[in-house]
Design a protein that fits this description.
Layout (H helix, E strand, L loop, with lengths): L1 E6 L40 E6 L2 H7 L17 H10 L3 E4 L8 E3 L7 E6 L1 E3 L9 E3 L1 H14 L3 E4 L13 H11 L3 E5 L18 E6 L3 E4 L2 E3 L4 E2 L1 E2 L11 E5 L23 H4 L3 E5 L5 H10 L4 E5 L17 E4 L1 H11 L6 E4 L3 E4 L27 E4 L3 E4 L18 E4 L2 H18 L5 H9 L22 H4 L6 H4 L4 E2 L4 H11 L1 H7 L20 E3 L6 E9 L5 E8 L4 E6 L2 E4 L5 E10 L10 E9 L4 E9 L2
Parallel strand pairs: 1-5, 1-8, 2-5, 8-9, 9-10, 10-21, 15-16, 16-17, 17-18, 25-32
Antiparallel strand pairs: 3-4, 6-7, 11-20, 12-13, 12-19, 14-18, 15-19, 22-23, 24-26, 26-30, 27-29, 27-31, 28-30, 31-32
Helix pairs in contact: 2-8, 3-4, 12-13
């Protein structure tokens, strides 16, 4: 299998991209190894079989690439591209650990024997720190996607998002992905990091997989011990220890320079802290404005000895671990409140930050990351998005040695493997799983692979309880889609919901005629195009249900012969869901059966009618459970 990775390219010397023991490059491969600054043809091998870069759009806006900010080549000066590539398809590498020895073990991508093709279409923003991100131009992205399709990739992994949802005719990635769908190339995309606000997700097109971010069952405990003996759970991967047990403890809002606006005094923004009040102390900073690592850098500038990063209420229990430049730990919102209460209760507050340690089999896990962008899908509310969730919080993977672990200019350290968080990290987890499914089932369509991944997920954590959000509330399909991915289960899903390229064009007749004209102006739409809710999708959403809606679906048997499936539904509150027929019998593999789902309001006056309610419907034969989410709002 060949996986194409977009973004900031690759550090080819990483052990994760070794080709030891790999066979010849597939004859179907038509790509090239494009040379450039610090990158020549020898940097491609039987693992990295191709690499290209695209810069015309960037240069038209900014001029030539600054050699101190990025390589004019497929080489990675950022870290993001190397991280995502190794997450999707990195080789198994033993005795890997992050800086400080955290998470030591064997690193492996989702599909470690898959080939990688690298397409660099994003570049460092001129005159800005790398930590501020990269910029990607539509011209460069479309050129990269066109080449990837022609080169013969099987999976496109796209860890790129837009600042806000875009209609299909303006959606560069979506349009390119539809071109890929014509060649049965699956595109996997990040949902975005603009959560937890609703209606914020990127990449909503139904012909691609949209991935949210959730946690692993691994933690890095670094508790705070207050002077009154109270222990506050914290997490950290900062590789430094305090020189003595206890230090004076201060809240950032109490030690700022004059003139800092009252609403951001606790944020530890650059230049905000008064060194005379901070020197030799542990500083409590709060999340909300500014970058997490930047807050620690400000504490260090002001001569603080360590810092505690307290979550805002929005961040809840999600603890993103960063490789800070001084002793540090992150605490939950409730933990931060307890620390501030202690500071205000005594004249001389003191604390210690315990050295961090790796903890496996952490519970509860998974839970949804607070940053993951959420539905509803504002481009087409009838398509439930995101589709699925996968690990995206504190992910350890390969890194560019030309970058630092924090990507801040003040950080001069270099690492081979690094932690990073975001839906950029969850996306390649699913890309790797999709590559494995393509290898197991080479005759499956991209819709079949997507369906198999979506209908075999888990919606409970390792306590056996429903997956929660970062605040501990029960999460919903607008956060995790169909659930947390289970690649092994997806290899044998029982039934799949299939769709073709022409089905997607027909779908655009009703919701994206401008996009359809750009993609295939010769396609003839019927006089009355079907509603988009009737695209054969493994989930559905209905906004403003004010009467009966009938939804048509077709499933294909890919499991066993002579099986009878029964319909079960757990509808949203105030909603009635029925299927006709309610039993499906399959006597052969590949057989298709259609059914209607009738959705109607129950007219129950005790049920609230604001916002969406969520439920599930399942086809089961006693062995397979083919589960799909639904979202319905009542006017």
């Amino acid at each position: 299998m060949m996986i194409s990775i977009w973004f900031s390219c690759v550090w080819p010397e990483s052990p994760s991209f070794s080709d030891e023991g790999m066979g010849p490059i597939p004859k179907s491969w038509k790509g090239i190894c494009q040379e450039g600054i610090a990158f020549n043809s020898s940097h491609c091998n039987k693992k990295i079989i191709g690499a290209r870069y695209y810069v015309k759009g960037f240069e038209s806006q900014f001029g030539s690439v600054n050699a101190t900010e990025d390589y004019l080549s497929p080489r990675d000066m950022d870290g993001h591209g190397t991280h995502t590539a190794s997450t999707a398809a990195g080789r198994q590498v033993s005795n890997v650990a992050a800086l400080g020895g955290f998470a030591k073990g064997t690193a492996s991508g989702g599909a470690p024997l898959a080939r990688l093709a690298i397409y660099k279409a994003c570049w460092a923003i001129p005159n800005q720190p790398k930590a501020d991100g990269n910029t990607c131009f539509a011209e460069d992205m479309l050129a990269a996607m066109d080449d990837a399709i022609a080169d013969g990739v099987d999976i496109l992994s796209v860890s790129i998002v837009t600042p806000e949802p875009l209609p299909y005719h303006q959606d560069t990635i979506g349009l390119g992905a539809l071109h890929a769908a014509k060649r049965n190339i699956l595109v996997v995309c990040s949902a975005g990091n603009n959560g937890p606000a609703p209606g914020t997700l990127s990449n909503p097109a139904p012909w691609l997989i949209t991935v949210g971010a959730s946690s692993l069952d691994r933690a890095f405990f670094a508790p705070v011990i207050l002077g009154n003996g109270l222990e506050i759970i914290g997490q950290s991967v900062a590789p430094y220890k305090l020189k003595k047990d206890k230090y004076p403890l201060v809240y950032a809002g109490d030690v700022v320079v004059p003139g800092v606006p009252q609403n951001i005094t606790g944020q530890c923004l650059p230049g905000s802290l008064e060194p005379d009040k901070v020197k030799g102390k542990i500083v409590v900073c709060t999340r909300g404005v500014g970058l997490r690592v930047g807050k620690g850098i400000e504490v260090k500038r002001a001569a603080g000895v360590g810092f505690i990063l307290a979550n805002s209420q929005t961040n809840g229990n999600e603890l993103s671990c960063d490789v800070h430049l001084l002793p540090a730990t992150a605490v939950t919102y409730d933990g931060g409140i307890k620390i501030l209460e202690y500071i205000n209760s005594t004249k001389n507050p003191i604390a210690m930050i315990s050295p961090a340690r790796t903890v496996l089999h952490y519970k509860p896990a998974p839970f949804m990351a607070g940053f993951t962008s959420q539905g509803p899908n504002v481009v087409d509310p009838n398509i439930l998005k995101p589709d699925i969730t996968a690990p995206g919080l504190n992910i350890l993977a390969a890194w560019s040695e030309a970058s630092s672990p924090t990507k801040f200019p003040e950080d001069h350290r270099s690492v081979k493997y690094n932690f990073f968080s975001g839906t950029s990290m969850s996306c390649p987890h699913v890309s790797g799983a999709a590559a494995l499914l393509r290898a197991i089932h080479p005759d499956w369509s991209i819709a079949a692979i997507k369906s198999a991944l979506m209908t075999t997920t888990r919606i409970t954590n390792n306590f056996g309880k429903p997956i929660t959000d970062a605040a501990g509330n029960i999460a919903a399909p607008f956060q995790f889609g169909s659930g947390h991915f289970r690649p092994i289960r997806a290899a044998d899903p029982g039934l799949i919901y299939d769709s073709s390229y022409d089905d997607y064009l027909l779908y655009l007749c009703s919701v994206g005629p401008k996009a359809l004209n750009d993609i295939n102006p010769t396609f003839k739409c019927p006089d009355e195009p079907p509603s988009s809710v009737n695209l054969n999708y493994p989930s559905f959403a209905i906004p403003n249900l004010n009467g009966t809606v009938i939804i048509t679906r077709t499933v294909t048997n890919v499991g066993r012969c002579n099986r009878k499936y029964f319909f079960k539904a757990k509808p949203p509150p105030g909603v009635r869901v029925k299927a006709s027929p309610s039993t499906l019998y399959f006597d052969q593999i590949g057989q298709k059966k259609s059914f209607n789902i009738t959705v109607s309001p129950r007219n129950n006056p005790t049920v609230g009618k604001s916002g969406y309610g969520f439920g599930w419907y399942t086809w089961t034969d006693g062995y397979y459970r083919v589960r799909s989410p639904m979202a319905v709002s009542l006017p």
